[in-house]
Amino acid sequence: MTLETLVQQLMNGISLGSLYALIAIGYTMVYGILRLINFAHGDVFMVGAYTAFYLVSFFLLPWWAVVPLTLLAAALLGMFIDRVAYRPLRQEPRISALITAVGVSFFLETLGIVVLGARPKGFTEYIPGLFARVYDLAGIKIPGVAVWVPLLSLACLGLLLYIIYNTKVGMAMRAVATDIETVRLMGVNVDRIISYTFALGSALAAAGGIMWAFKFWQIQPLMGIYPGWKAFTAAVVGGIGNITGAMLGGFIIGLAEIMAVAFFPDFSGYRDAFVFAILIAFLLVKPTGILGESLKEKV
Amino acid sequence: MLSVKELHVYYEAFTLSGISLEVPQGKIVTLIGANGAGKSTTLRAIVGLVRPRSGSIKLGGQEVAGRPTHWLIQQGITMVPEGRRIFPNLTVQENLEIGAYYRTDRAGIERDLAWVYSLFPRLQERRRQKGGTLSGGEQQMLAIGRALMSRPRLLALDEPSLGLAPLLVKEVFRVLREINDQGTTILLVEQNARAALQLADYGYVMETGQIVLEGTGRDLLGNERVRRAYLGE
């Protein structure tokens, strides 16, 4: 392998990993609070990509308007899913919400096929110039997506960490993750905090969905399934419930996937299997992940 | 201030059958009884963590039974839960700030923060530490301070002396007296009957989900039945 392809593959892995990181945050935040794996999260990512697609192709809006509108729409969708599907089951056994999450996921996927059509939609002509151009780094050609996707993802993740660690709502989110009942005793409307958590996670997934479309040039209603599962893997690898862990896990999974393909091109058909092998290995050897603490059962 | 009438609750293994009690403004009222008598369940029903089957809970004349916990806290009741339930991953300062979560009067919050730090100077020294790193006694101080940050009219405490060394128990009761002197009404659930009755203006004795005795703290301390069952004499 030449230096050029190595650098290109590294950049490719980092940009893919940063997208996994964006999605993984939503899994890990919801899990941290509700001990629920929100299977519908990958489909919110898909809805985000489609929302951006229609805003830019049908409503002909400029990107500076498309992005905030898309994030807002995804945030509202996340809050809506929580409100109608999960909140009514809050007092029920956890498995009920888990099964419901699978149901919501199938619902969004099939609804997508019916309403949006199963055929992929081309994104190529709408990609902003910054992402479409090719940078020349000391003779090594780097596509714009490989530069801007990680940078913008890191900016999103930085903003998220700021919200979690420096705002009142973020403080409540951290508290809710350890002891919901006591947060109620603080006069906090916990349902609202959970709602905000879904909103944040969903907005990040939508940001990932938009950039995914920039990177892979097309979108389709089932596009959320594999990225969703891999981001879930990233969340587990990083230590589910841990936000920094989810970011770390995203980069690890993205890089591992790309490097596996780069070094063993003959096995490139097994790239998904490779990622899930990592998931299984972690679940067997270190189910709490890299940064996760052993789960204390909540009182 | 708080008036509970004919409260019936069925919650897990606990049943309350017709609890009635009064907590007058500015007083300290205690609820004593053996483990499993239903003291905690009574408190949990008052702050809305457990839904009563029937009965009335009035706060300052307003019926509040069945209201959600966060709303009740905003009306000025608060509870220090059993086992302190500090947020271990939040700093000491954040633990106090989250106690004032629903308040928007910044200046008032700052004032109360200073007040809590003056009540518990140890907390100020450790304000940047994670709550989980504190000792049991410090965590109890933090739990009380956190509750005070909501500026409650009525402070309910569930077994604040549990698991604390005798010296710390004394300290906790001294602080409760001081908080009461500054105008906060207190409803105290305790197994440490002697300390609680010495502190309280009025006391209730609970057995198997019912109130079996009531009287002023002094009366109950002198009561033959209380002396035998709860004071170990």
Put simply, the count of helices of chain B is: 10
Query: What is the chains' assembly state?
Result: heterodimer
Largest sheet of chain B: 6 strands, mixed
Helical fraction of chain A equals: over 70%
Q: In terms of per-residue confidence, which ranges of chain A show pLDDT below 50 for 5 or more consecutive residues?
A: none
Structural class determined from secondary elements of chain B: alpha/beta
Question: For the residues shown, what is the average pLDDT of chain A?
Answer: 93
Total number of domains of chain A: 1
* Regions with little confidence, pLDDT below 50 for 5+ residues of chain B: none
Biggest sheet: strand arrangement of chain A:
1-4
Could you walk me through the main structural features you see in this protein, from its secondary elements to its overall organization?
- The complex is a heterodimer of chains A (299) and B (233).
- Chain A is mainly alpha-helical and 299 residues long.
- Chain A has one domain: ABC transporter involved in vitamin B12 uptake, BtuC.
- Chain A is built from twelve helices and four strands, in the order H-H-H-H-E-H-E-E-H-H-H-H-E-H-H-H.
- In chain A, the strands form two sheets. A two-stranded antiparallel ribbon of chain A has the order 1-4.
- In chain A, strand 2 (134-137) and strand 3 (140-143) form a beta hairpin.
- In chain A, helix 1 (3-34) crosses helix 10 (225-238), helix 3 (63-86) packs across helix 9 and helix 7 (168-178) crosses helix 9 (190-216).
- The radius of gyration of chain A is 19 Å and the shape is globular.
- Chain B has 233 residues and is an alpha/beta fold.
- Chain B has a six-stranded mixed β-sheet with strand order 6-7-8-3-9-10, with helices on both faces.
- In chain B, strand 9 (202-207) and strand 10 form a beta hairpin.
- Chain B is globular.
- Chain B starts with a strand and ends with a helix.
- The interface between A and B is medium-sized, with 18 and 24 residues.
